[in-house]
Structures are given as structure tokens and as C-alpha cells.
Write a sequence for this structure.
């Protein structure tokens, strides 16, 4: 499934990379989420020539919306009716994949029956070459190119509609709560052509991330530690301050969280274990990661 909003600059790279896969999908549902550029024309051109590509256009108010993205994916899910499949996944409209990506990913699932959700890791252009993103972790699976075992997908109820994003994070935590394993594999490269946050200002993007952290029940102490440890990364101090401000703003307003108390308790138990590991000198990466990659 792919949700696309104004991706004329990148979506053809995505389509060509999927067409080049050693293992093609039984069906690929691409939903244009109210695009106002040439996204629709590009997708239609390929859908006319490849039967497994199905295209749907949705209309809504202009502007990027995380909730609207998941609603588009839910519409894409309905387009999978009538076919038999064992895995369901998401490919973002601004990435490209190596031809063996899904073949190798399916191999990992075949070797590990308890693996419920898995994918590759982000590589972004830096100095003229694609390099692994510093935030990549084995236990944080980016939504940009992931597969979910069908039984796992149905157990977690699919991707949740969340105002501030984090549907990939929510899916990870819920899958683990249901007893499934998750993992991202560094040898499976997802080439990301639009760096995270490029679609808007850095401050606004990081502020939104702070509100996302709060909405999913992130532990306040963990949030502070995480932001402090990320100061050396771009966009440096201003991004960390903006993220903490977003988290604090939501906390002051006592905003209602869209997740269950069980979800929050599970997430915080993992995060507190990681903080304890850090204080013992083990580092934040010493525990399984439940925080989003960005």
C-alpha cells in the first residue's frame, strides 16, 4: 500500500524500484491523498500498463496530514479484497528500493515464524552519496518500506489514525504487546529521497514530534534524556528544544491520548529500562527500541 500526497518529484523512482523487484506484489494499491501536482498522472500511466497496480484518488483539504495518510492507507487496504496474500506492507512515495529488497525480507520472515513486522533501514543522501541514518536501530522499523505478516496485521488492527503521526511506532509497540517480534535489517536499504522534515520547517516538524511523543504516552524522563542525547545531531539544539516544547505543551494542556493505558504502560516500562541502562553506563541503545526513528 502507498499513500501519496504531491509526490511528483519522487513517486516515479518509487514505482520503478517496485517494478524492478525480484518478487512483485500480488497487488499494489496506490492512493493519491488529494494531490494537486502531477502525482495522479504519473501513477495512472503505470497503472494502465501493469494490472497489479491499482490507483485511487481521494479528495480532502490541502496540506500534509498524518491522519489523512492513514485514512488513505485504509482505503488502499480495501482495494486488496479478492486476493490471497500472506503479507501486507507499506511503501512510501518518496523512496526507492534495491531489486532484492522484498525477496530478502520475505526470506527473513520464512526463517523466523514469530517475526511479525519487519523492514529495512533508512539511507539518506549526504555529500553526494547515500549513508545510513544515525537514528537507525534494529528494533525500530520505519514505515517507509515495511512488511507485516497478515496474522500480525490483523492482530494489531492495522495502522492507527493518529493526529500527530507515529502509526509505525504504534504498530511496533502493539505487535510486541501481542507477542510478535519486530526488526529492521541494515542490509536492506531504503533510499529516502526527501529528508524527514523537508516538507515543512524544522521547528514546526520537531514541535509536532514532541506532541506525537506525548500522544503515544512517552515517559517524560525518557523524553528529556532522548532530546539531550540528540543535541549533537542536526538540527542541533533548536530541534531538541522544539520537540521538548511540543511535548510540554501537550502535557500542560492535558491532551487526551488516543492509546490505551495498557499501551502507555508497556511503552514506558521499556523506556524506563533504557534510561536505567543509560545510567548504568549501558547507553540508550542497550534496550530494545520502541521510539520512532526520526
Amino acid at each position: 500500500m502507498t499513500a501519496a500526497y504531491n509526490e511528483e518529484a519522487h513517486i516515479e523512482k518509487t514505482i520503478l524500484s517496485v517494478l524492478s523487484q525480484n518478487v512483485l506484489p500480488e497487488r499494489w494499491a496506490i492512493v493519491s491523498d488529494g494531490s494537486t501536482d502531477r502525482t495522479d498522472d504519473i501513477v495512472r500511466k503505470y497503472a494502465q500498463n501493469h494490472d497489479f497496480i491499482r490507483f485511487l484518488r481521494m479528495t480532502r483539504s490541502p496540506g500534509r496530514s498524518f491522519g489523512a495518510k492513514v485514512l488513505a492507507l485504509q482505503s488502499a487496504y480495501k482495494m486488496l479484497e479478492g486476493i490471497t496474500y500472506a503479507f501486507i506492507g507499506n511503501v512510501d512515495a518518496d523512496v526507492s528500493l534495491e531489486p532484492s529488497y522484498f525477496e530478502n525480507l520475505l526470506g527473513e520472515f520464512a526463517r523466523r515464524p514469530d517475526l511479525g513486522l519487519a523492514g529495512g533501514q533508512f539511507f539518506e543522501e549526504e555529500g553526494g552519496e547515500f549513508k545510513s541514518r544515525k537514528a537507525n536501530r534494529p528494533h525500530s522499523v520505519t514505515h517507509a518500506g515495511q512488511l507485516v505478516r497478515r496474522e500480525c496485521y490483523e492482530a494489531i488492527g492495522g495502522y492507527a489514525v493518529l493526529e500527530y503521526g507515529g502509526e509505525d511506532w504504534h504498530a511496533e509497540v502493539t505487535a510486541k504487546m501481542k507477542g510478535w517480534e519486530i526488526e529492521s535489517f541494515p542490509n536492506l536499504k531504503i533510499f529516502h529521497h526527501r529528508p524527514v522534515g523537508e516538507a515543512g520547517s524544522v521547528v514546526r516538524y520537531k514541535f509536532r514530534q514532541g506532541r506525537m511523543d506525548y500522544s503515544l504516552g512517552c515517559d517524560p524522563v525518557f523524553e528529556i534524556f532522548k532530546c539531550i542525547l540528540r543535541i549533537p545531531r542536526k538540527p542541533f539544539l533548536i530541534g531538541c528544544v522544539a520537540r521538548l516544547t511540543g511535548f510540554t505543551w501537550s502535557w500542560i494542556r492535558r491532551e487526551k491520548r488516543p492509546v490505551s493505558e495498557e499501551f502507555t504502560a508497556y511503552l514506558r516500562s521499556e523506556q524506563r529500562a533504557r534510561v536505567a541502562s543509560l545510567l548504568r553506563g549501558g547507553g540508550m541503545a542497550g534496550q530494545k527500541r520502541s521510539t520512532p526513528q526520526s
The radius of gyration is 19 Å.
